[in-house]
Amino acid sequence: MKIAIAGAGIGGLVAAMCLSRAGFNVEVLEAVSELRPLGVGINIQAGAVRVLAGLGLELALAATAVETRELRYANRHGQTIWADPRGRHAGLPWPQFSIHRGELQMILFHAAEKMLGADRIKFGRRIAGFEQKDSKVTARFVDRDGKTVDTAESDILIGADGIHSAVRAHFYPDEGPPKGQGILMWRGVTVGKPFLGGATMVQAGHHNQKFVCYPISRAHAEKGEALINWICDLRMGDDAMLLREDWNRPGKLSDFLPRFEDWTFDWLDVPGVIRAAHAIYEFPMVDRDPLPRWSHGRVTLLGDAAHPMYPIGSNGASQAILDGEAITQELLAGGDPEAALQRYEQRRRRPTARIVESNRRKGIDVMLDIVEQRAPQGFSKLESVLPTDELEKIVADYKKLANQDRETLLKMAVAQ
Ligand SMILES: Cc1cc2nc3c(=O)[nH]c(=O)nc-3n(C[C@H](O)[C@H](O)[C@H](O)COP(=O)(O)OP(=O)(O)OC[C@H]3O[C@@H](n4cnc5c(N)ncnc54)[C@H](O)[C@@H]3O)c2cc1C
């Protein structure tokens, strides 16, 4: 069976490797003319590392990434609200990795080239349309000037073409642009001093003004430094949502630094980290409404094309990776390919929609808002602001929803 995948992002490349290893004939067609290590930091949750480890990639990732030891939530004064061990530090069989998104994509690309064959990943091919006829899908690809450069015939087409998916737009032409709630994110990477043990991911502040940071480079850690990925979220109002989402749009310090100027914690100088960044990017926090259907005949969606979500709880890349595993298992189970795509959708559509919806209601960040509302000047005893029972329920509910709870993850280990 021949499977064409539009998009060589995190989701497309992982799906391509899972499918190829299962014996399918896979071709990946990517819009850009060459992959460059773009983006800043990204997290791969333990359950998704399990899939990558199954593809033989754990060592390559460990050589580049930081194995995240702890996730810590703090108020805007730097006081800890909740800290949670991650990955192997939580007794799971796999680590959680914090990594540069571009490096992750390059690791996946080189591994996919080896597994599929270099000629099976084609660049400069933007999917522009497709037709389904007699159990075949014929897709048309254009270059950046809109000139048709290729057609690909396959038994199945997977749209892994990201938040502006053309495959999704084919089925939902009236959907319009992604949606947001007026929050802009400024993202950057700074070489600095290690903080909180050198492998902690921090979320500080509250939903309308948040600072997220975590180290992403093993090489820097080995030199006693930290390559710190950071994100400043600020609620700006609806006009901010008019910006077209472009992962490479440069940001300006003066637009957000003043709001973080007094965020000097005893363990981190937030304005100092922001000021020392060598590049800053601006991006609106956007998602799309969950879809009623992903699979239409022999065509389906995967990753951000299917379920773009706010980057709350670090789930975007991990859920795309889990999609790749699920679609492979359902196609491998055999039978009618259209039925396999329906089963894939049944497995993945509702769980990912629940994360999209939960993130719109702030997801696990709700704990930050509760503390900000009840103790805006900080607290002397957390228990009197956010009782342990209430906190534990917020955490347990979110982990269950995002397949990050221990029980689900250990079940996945046994199932392997
Ligand atoms: C340049 C870039 C930088 C990013 N930086 C970050 C970051 O710093 N932090 C973070 O958390 N997330 C980042 N993301 C998003 C993140 O990678 C995804 O949210 C997540 O990993 C899910 O992956 P995906 O493969 O579904 O989507 P993506 O990783 O977005 O990949 C989609 C791929 O499809 C390609 N494509 C788009 N349209 C077409 C088309 N019509 N035909 C063929 N191919 C097409 C794109 O070029 C891209 O390679 C970035 C995405 C991109 C594209």
Summed up, what is this model?
The chain is 33% helix and 26% strand. It is α/β, with parallel strands linked by helices.
Dominant shape: globular
Helical content, roughly? 25-40%
Q: Widest sheet: strand order?
A: 6-5-14-15-16-13-17
Mean pLDDT: 93
Task: Figure out the total of helices.
Answer: 13
Q: Outline the low-pLDDT stretches.
A: none
Main sheet summary? 7 strands, mixed
What is the strand tally?
Answer: 18
The distinct bound ligands, ions and cofactors come out as: flavin-adenine dinucleotide
State the end-to-end CA separation. 25 Å
**Residues in β-strands, percent:** 25-35%
Question: What Rg do the Cα atoms give?
Answer: 21 Å
Q: Helix/strand-derived class?
A: alpha/beta
Instruction: Give the assembly state of these chains.
Output: single chain
Task: Please explain how this structure is put together.
The protein has 13 helices and 18 strands. Helix 1 (10-21) packs parallel to helix 4 and helix 9 (316-332) runs antiparallel to helix 10. Helix content is 33%, strand content 26%. The chain is globular. A hairpin with a 5-residue loop joins strand 5 and strand 6 (80-85). It has a seven-stranded mixed beta sheet. A five-stranded parallel beta sheet has the order 8-2-1-12-18. It has a three-stranded antiparallel beta sheet with strand order 3-7-4. The protein binds flavin-adenine dinucleotide (FAD).
